[in-house]
């Protein structure tokens, strides 16, 4: 006869709550950025033509919906170059510049912020003075002066854009590093004899990485707009290379006769910067413990 008095075991684990889905606009931003990244990575595969290929018989051909054909879905310019092919390679170039410049600014600013937090005193005052000087200097005027004086090259252009908003990372890294250094885990590692490189690289940086990542997502669209503006003025990406900004600058001369040359890259810039901004705001709300 079975023992009916055996104790019953009840599960005390509460069911885990499912994480809510991101808002529709954030989902749109993620999908659009995924499309842009895929386009940049697969540009050589998905491009219907080379971005320098000429089709003189179809110069200024309109896109589909305005009387064009599927031979050139987004139309052509006055040299017969396919707008879709140039747009695909422009996306690759603009994203490469934006990613490279954002990483350079983040590395420079974070490194200087850590130096100010570690040495304090004179070093901190020097870093803060550089931060204030950089924040007060109009970056666009500085960029125009440097590019006009030294000429333009892709490496110089990316490094110059990398100095945009580095002071933002320096201030954030300095403040968070000072706060983290006063907490128990940093003091304990320091007492164990860890070097400053190990303390800041292995312990402090991972704890402040979420804030720095959010700052990068907010600076990324600013870099895209700066690149577009400088390329629009003829001081950015030089022919035969192409970028979103250079396409807009090139298409302004044909705005009345062939507006599709300008509209395609302009809408791409708008949607890309909007998507990155939406993603940055969402990440800030998700990673900030005071907003949970």
UniProtKB/TrEMBL annotation:
Keywords: Membrane, Transmembrane, Transmembrane helix, Transport
CDD domains referenced in this protein's UniProt entry, alphabetically: TM_PBP2
InterPro entries: BP-dependent_transpt_permease, MetI-like
Chain coiled-coil ranges: none
Signal sequence segment: none
Membrane topology listed for this record: Multi-pass membrane protein
Residue intervals of the ABC transmembrane type-1 domain: 91-280
One of the Pfam families matching this protein, by short name: BPD_transp_1
Localization, UniProt: Cell membrane
Residue stretches spanning the membrane: 25-51, 95-119, 139-166, 204-226, 260-283
Family as reported in the entry's similarity comment: Belongs to the binding-protein-dependent transport system permease family.
Protein name: ABC transporter permease
Organism in which the protein naturally occurs: Falsiroseomonas tokyonensis
């Amino acid at each position: 006869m079975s023992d009916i008095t055996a104790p019953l075991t009840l599960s005390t684990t509460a069911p885990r709550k499912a994480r809510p889905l991101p808002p529709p606009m954030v989902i749109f931003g993620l999908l659009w950025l995924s499309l842009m990244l895929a386009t940049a990575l697969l540009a050589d595969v998905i491009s219907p033509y080379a971005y320098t290929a000429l089709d003189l018989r179809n110069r200024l051909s309109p896109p589909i919906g305005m009387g064009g054909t599927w031979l050139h879905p987004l139309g052509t310019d006055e040299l017969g170059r396919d707008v879709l092919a140039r747009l695909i390679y422009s996306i690759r170039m603009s994203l490469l510049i934006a990613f490279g410049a954002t990483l350079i600014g983040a590395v420079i600013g974070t490194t200087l912020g850590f130096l100010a937090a570690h040495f304090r005193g004179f070093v901190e005052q020097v870093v803060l003075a550089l931060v204030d000087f950089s924040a007060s200097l109009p970056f666009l005027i500085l960029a125009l002066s440097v590019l006009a004086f030294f000429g333009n090259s892709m490496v110089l252009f990316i490094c110059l854009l990398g100095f945009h908003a580095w002071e933002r990372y320096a201030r954030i890294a300095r403040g968070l590093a000072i706060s983290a250094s006063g907490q128990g885990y940093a003091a304990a590692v320091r007492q164990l004899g860890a070097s400053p490189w190990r303390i800041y690289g292995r312990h402090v940086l991972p704890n402040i990485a979420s804030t720095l990542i959010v700052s990068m997502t907010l600076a990324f669209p600013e870099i895209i707009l700066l690149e577009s503006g400088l390329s629009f003025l003829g001081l950015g990406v030089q022919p035969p290379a192409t970028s979103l900004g250079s396409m807009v600058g090139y298409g302004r001369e044909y705005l009345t006769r062939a507006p599709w040359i300008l509209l395609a890259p302009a809408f791409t810039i708008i949607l890309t910067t909007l998507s990155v901004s939406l993603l940055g705001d969402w990440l800030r709300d998700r990673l900030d413990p005071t907003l949970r």
